[in-house]
Design goal:
Jelly Rolls, 6-stranded antiparallel β-sheet, mainly beta, 3-stranded antiparallel β-sheet, 11 strands
């Protein structure tokens, strides 16, 4: 089953200050992660500061794929996640450095021999993950939660993975916001490593 393509409309202003559509069509950056066949990132938009500069600047999704949001910025993307396979669960951990390198954040992978899933990772950001189609299991260090269409996860810089045990593709929408660990959390994370 193939999921539908994403259609994006971007607005802006003309020289007289009138609201106009500056872009209307398919996303220019759609990337399949080579080390995790079937995982596709659909880059929608990003901002690089807060407050976000409202301008007619160039499309920020052009260029290499990067997992975390920009410093003091945001990132909006859809991710299509294929069902986990026995082969991936058995050998996927060995491919995670390559996978996270391709998406611009090699150090995000936290997988080790005792990890509950080969995609375990962490970013210093607040991420809103919304299940759009299918179902997903959120895997944390010591617990799991089944998510269905309409489920929203507020991911606050925790170690996690997305496990698709449904046998069908899942599409999630992610809004990532740059963050910084509070001192007590940063200290606890350092002790756990």
């Amino acid at each position: 089953m193939s999921l539908p393509s994403i259609h994006r409309v971007v607005t802006g202003h003309d020289a007289r200050g009138q609201a106009v559509i500056t872009s209307n069509g398919p996303l220019p950056t759609v990337v399949e992660v080579a080390a995790i066949a079937g995982t596709v990132f659909h880059e929608v938009w990003s901002t690089s500061e807060a407050p976000a500069l409202i301008s007619n600047a160039a499309d920020p999704t052009l260029g290499p794929l990067v997992l975390p949001p920009p410093a003091r910025g945001t990132r909006l993307r859809f991710v299509d996640i294929p069902p986990d396979t026995e082969e991936f669960l058995a050998h996927g951990a060995a491919r995670m450095q390559a996978a996270f390198s391709q998406i611009g954040d090699a150090q995000a992978s936290t997988v080790h021999a005792q990890s509950p899933h080969p995609l375990m990772h962490r970013t210093e950001s607040v991420d809103y993950g919304i299940v759009i189609e299918g179902e997903m299991t959120l895997v944390l260090d010591a617990s799991e939660q089944l998510l269905q269409v309409g489920s929203v996860v507020v991911q606050r810089g925790t170690n996690h993975a997305w496990a698709n045990r449904s046998g069908k593709p899942c599409r999630m929408l992610f809004i990532l916001v740059d963050g910084a660990y509070a001192p007590d959390i940063a200290t606890a994370l350092e002790k756990s490593q």
